[in-house]
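seq:
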Amino acid sequence: MDDLLLPPVSRRSVSQKLVMALHRAERLQNLLHSNSQNLHGEPFLPKPKVISVIGSRGGCGVSLFSSYLAHLVSRELKDQSVLMADFDVEEGDLRMIFGGQEALRARGYGELIDVVDELDKDMIGRVIHKVGDLNLLFSPSPEQLLDSLNLHFFQSLLNCLRDSFRVLLLILSANLGMPSTRVALSASDLVLVITEPRPFAIRGLQRLLALLAKLVPEADLRVILNKFDSVQALPTPLVEKAIGRSIYRKIPEDAALGLLFEQTGTLLLERRDLSVVASIYEICSDLFLVGDFKGGETGRSIGKELMSAWRLASNFLFGK
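struct:
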C-alpha cells in the first residue's frame, strides 16, 4: 500500500490544493444564495436572464407566443420571479391576451413616470398584474404622456426590474427608434425574432435583421418561423437563403388554437396535443431547462471546482 501513496511533501501539497478547491467551490456556491431578493423576498441568481421578443411586422404572433412562453417558464422554474413586460408602447396588446375587466383596468408602467428617479421594488410591485406565478407589466394607457417615456425612463425601469426578477421577457415594437426597444435590446441576453414565411413578412425581416446587426452587433439573434406550414408559406430553405441565416425553431399553424382561445379567453397551457403549444414547450425546454440557465456560468464553475477537488482527493487516497 505504501508504494501507492504519494510522498509526504506531495501529500501535503495535494491536501492544500484540495482545501483551496473546496473553498473556491463553496464561495461560488454561495453566489447562488446571495442577499439579492425578488419582490417576494426570495433569493435568486445574481444575474437575471433578459429575453426580448420582436416581430418582423405586426400580426406575426409575438404577443401570443410570448404569453405562452412566459407562462411555461414560470411553471417550469417553479417560482414567482418571471416577469413579462409589454415594451411596445405604440401597439401593445398584452391586456387583450389576458382579457377580462381586471386586466383592462390594471395599472401600467406609465404611472411610474413621475417617480422614475426614485424607483424601487415597492413602486414596481404596485403596477404588477399577477396571473398565477407570472408577473405582468402592461404598457401605458393611451391618455398617459408618452413623451415622458424616454431613454432615461426605460433605463431606470429596466434596471429596477433586473434587480427584482430572475427572468425578464420583453415584448418589443419593430420600430427600432422607440426608446423602449433600444434600451431593451441593449440589455438582452437573447433576442427572439418572430416572422411568418410570407413575402411581405420576409422583406420586413431582412430589413429588421440588418438594422439589428448595426444596433446590437453582438446580440444573440434567433429567428422563429411562425405558421411555417400554412398554405401561403414560403419554403424554409428559401427563407433561410433570403435572410442569410438558419431558422432557430419553427411553429406550425394550428387553427384549433385560435378558435379555442377565442372561445375560452384563456391560454391553453395543458393542451400539449395542440401542435403550437407543443412547439413552444420545446422552445421553453431548450432555453431554460439546460445548464446555461440553471446555475449558468456559476453552476458550471462549481462543477469544475468539485471535479477538481475529487481528482485531487483520488490522487491523495489512491495515487491515481
